[in-house]
Amino acid sequence: MSAAADLGFIHRFIAGRETGKSPLLLLHGTGGDESDLVPLAERITPGTTILAPRGKVLEHGMPRFFRRTSEGWDRDDLVARTDELGDFLKRAREAYGIGKPIVLGYSNGANIAWSLMLKEPDALAGAILMRAMLPFDPRPLPDLKDLPVLLLAGKYDELIPMTQAGLLAALLGESGADVTYETLPAGHGLTEQDLKLATSWLASRRMPHG
What we know:
Blueprint: E1 2-3, E2 11-14, E3 24-27, H1 38-44, E4 50-53, E5 57-59, E6 62-64, E7 68-69, E8 72-73, H2 75-96, E9 102-106, H3 108-119, E10 126-130, E11 148-154, H4 162-174, E12 178-184, H5 192-203
Parallel strand pairs: 3-4, 3-9, 9-10, 10-11, 11-12
Antiparallel strand pairs: 1-2, 2-4, 5-6, 7-8
């Protein structure tokens, strides 16, 4: 099922067959859209309810979730867009009658996902962050209260230094999250190993779905 921007974002909502699973909030990378990660989600956890917004920022015509400048991230825009995404999630949960989601974000989507985790610690049931990075210190940190997080980094990622992925894993752990950090023999693109790790990580955890 597709939906328009009546909740603030162009998005897709797909009602799942498995009502006992936490829904997935899919956040695409630069140049993706609301359909980009749906096939991946359906492979790693078939039958799960899916909520997938499209980023509202355009960079050379490519959708993103927050702006960049020549110096790096536009941090003021990141704050504003994180608030906007959090508001959308609240409205969508009420409109569709769904529980707290696990966020699955890739690249730019993974970066706004951790920003949302830090801004609204109670908004998510868990997180799968693929090719995320930490280019600045976002302290002070909230208490993430054992929030389960899977962080997948590529050893040969041409866009994200391994040190910045490792710093994000350490920071989320410092916040109290239950972090699983895996480095893969991969670049920025996703691989079959990413999907296998995400599948097994989800299957090994009983996420709350209320």
